[in-house]
Design brief:
binds zinc ion; alpha/beta; 289 residues; 2 domains; four-stranded mixed β-sheet; Nucleotidyltransferase, domain 5
Length: 289
């Protein structure tokens, strides 16, 4: 209990500091007359402002992306922490917002570790450690009689001899572009999955409506009926194909690929080397499995 209480106090104090504009980022130290290099100590690419340190710097952005806590609406709509955090508060559940605060604290802690000890950790390490802290905090404050729900469903590697395909789609309202993303992996990783026959195949999607429609035997009379029929046939012809619904947190790589495809890139595929923007999510999937 004492540990949880300490975490709670640290978290509250940290958020208060952010909102009161006294987080000692380098731009603020410079404004106060301290002779200091204002570049970000982690990426050395931009001036270290609070919003850069907590949200936009590469590791921070990967942490929030893996945890799916910064995506809707686009974080870039808000140019300050003071504007962004209240928006997140409005759009996230109470538990998700609490996890976000703890992740921001971990991001700042990682930044300080770089400043004082010249050691920083990757997003794939920060996220599971912080969620472990959150579990400790929660178990200290939630009644032991209350049902326990997993806060983050993890991607699980398939058994040896199986290949898993995670898929997702996105639609960008502003650009009116759709994006599709998919990743094949076997028990050894992306590279091995691509060099083998893709059977037996397990398909995972976080779209519950589509998974339910494809599992149903009844005629689909919706405007997507013909498409659903074709997809059912495809699943039947793929050897031992199974279709499973998973939470978005277990479908992170496909989600990030689909989101990126809807905004930035023409169609592309990768074999052994994943594009940089999805490396952290792939590493995260491979932790604690
Ligand atoms: Zn940076």
């Amino acid at each position: 209990m004492e540990f949880g209480l300490l975490k709670s106090q640290v978290k509250s104090k940290f958020v208060l500091e952010s909102l009161c504009k006294i987080l000692p980022t380098r731009d603020r130290l410079s404004e106060r007359g301290i002779d200091i290099d204002t570049q970000c100590p982690l990426c050395d690419e931009e001036v270290e402002t609070p919003v850069h340190a907590l949200r936009d710097c590469r590791i921070a952005s990967e942490v929030l992306s893996i945890a799916h806590l910064a995506l809707v609406p686009l974080a870039s709509q808000y140019s300050s922490v003071q504007a962004w955090l209240p928006d997140r508060f409005r759009h996230l559940s109470k538990e998700s917002f609490s996890i976000l605060l703890m992740l921001l604290w971990a991001i700042w802690r990682n930044r300080n570790s770089q400043v004082w000890d010249e050691v920083s950790q990757s997003a794939a390490v920060i996220v599971p450690i912080t969620l472990g802290w959150w579990e400790e905090f929660r178990s200290a404050h939630v009644s032991s009689h209350a049902p326990r729900q997993p806060i983050l469903q993890k991607w699980k590697k398939p058994s040896a001899g199986f290949v898993k395909l995670n898929v997702d789609a996105s639609f960008n309202l502003a650009s009116r572009r759709a994006g599709l993303g998919g990743v094949f992996r076997d028990s050894q990783g992306v590279k091995e999955a691509c060099s083998r026959h893709l059977v037996p195949l397990i398909v995972e999607s976080d779209c519950l409506n589509i998974v339910q429609a494809l599992h149903s035997n009844s005629l689909d009379n919706s405007v997507l009926g013909y498409l659903i029929g074709d997809l059912r046939q495809l699943l039947l012809t793929a050897f031992a194909a199974s279709l499973i619904h998973v939470r978005r947190s277990a479908n992170g790589v496909a989600h990030i690929l689909a989101r990126d495809a809807g905004v930035n890139h023409p169609a592309f595929e990768f074999l052994s080397v994943a594009p940089p923007f999805v490396e952290a999510a792939i590493s995260f999937d491979c932790t604690i499995n």
